[in-house]
Specification:
6-stranded antiparallel sheet
């Protein structure tokens, strides 16, 4: 599941028309401005993170979305799967220019299995530039450029087939077709 999830995440199509076609329930989830971790916690007893990849990469190793960030030599890449009560709900990728990792925000290198949202939404200096909506097959995702004290990072999230997003927006029979 983890390899499929990351493949689906990398295959997200960011066509602008998709956001216009969203149902109100999908729009509510995909355009959520607050912490997705906190939102998931309303649907389970425990949210956990499994890190699939973490470390510095060069600009050439980054996905094309690196163009949405300042040009630098190195970026911190963190890829995770977020689970609700042991069920995979979200694949996430965070890309941070090395210059974002200064001062207090150097802690982003040491999150371990703490959800990124716990760190980001504890900062009074967090702002969001945009949210793009995308799809990969029947799955939905989003990407956001966030700023911590003005320093950018890019967060891409893919909602996996068992995510509560689909339970609230699709008839029960359609959810199993994604698996």
């Amino acid at each position: 599941m983890t390899e499929n999830a990351l493949s689906w995440l990398r295959a997200l199509d960011w066509s602008a028309e998709q956001a216009c076609q969203l149902s109100p329930a999908l729009r509510d989830w995909l355009l959520e401005e607050r912490s997705m971790t906190r939102r998931f916690e309303r649907h389970c007893r425990q949210v956990t993170v499994r890190i699939t990849r973490e470390g510095f990469i060069s600009r050439q190793q980054a996905t094309p979305e690196v163009a949405l960030l300042p040009q630098e030599m190195r970026y911190w890449l963190r890829e995770i799967v977020l689970y609700g009560d042991g069920v995979p709900w979200l694949a996430g990728q965070t890309l941070l220019p090395e210059s974002t990792l200064t001062g207090r925000d150097r802690q982003l290198l040491e999150l371990g299995t703490m959800p990124l949202g716990r760190y980001l939404f504890s900062s009074p200096d967090l702002t969001r530039d945009f949210i793009d909506v995308g799809s990969s097959g029947e799955l939905w995702g989003r990407r956001s450029r966030l700023r911590l004290a003005g320093k950018p990072l890019l967060l891409t999230e893919l909602f996996l087939p068992d995510s509560p997003l689909y339970g609230e927006t699709l008839p029960a029979g359609e959810k199993s077709a994604n698996e």
